[in-house]
Amino acid sequence: YGAHSVKLSAGDLVVYPASSLHRVTPITRGTRVSSFFWIQSLVRGDAQRTLLFDLDMAIVRLTRKDPQAQELVSLTGIYHNLLRMWSEP
10-residue block means of pLDDT along the chain (89 residues)? Predict the structure, then answer.
């Protein structure tokens, strides 16, 4: 994903893939309170998640353009079928 620098307001958080290298710089004032946790997607494969995201964004764009489009029913069904097929128990 390349190098990124993030400075957040109090109470904000960053979510990133566990495979990402990261570092936390020292604080210059105040107190840092932190928490960490792990989550796992129902869909394990990054490529599969990317395809589902792209399909979902296409559905969103089509919905904005023409909410009555017949293709929406088909595309939404495909999205949900792929999600069921690729989901892990």
Answer: 83 84 88 87 93 98 96 97 95
pTM (whole model) above 0.70 = no
Q: What is the C-alpha separation between 80 and 52, in angstroms, rounded?
A: 9
* Residue 41 tokens, joined: 């997607």
CA distance 3 to 74: 39
What is the helix, strand, coil percentage profile of the chain, to 5?
40, 0, 55
Residue 58 to residue 51: CA distance in whole angstroms: 11
76: number of Cβ within 10 Å? 15
Calculate the alpha carbon distances from 27 to 9, 35, 36, 52, 62 in Å. Answer: 13, 16, 18, 39, 45
Helix axes 71-86, 46-65, angle to 10 degrees: 160
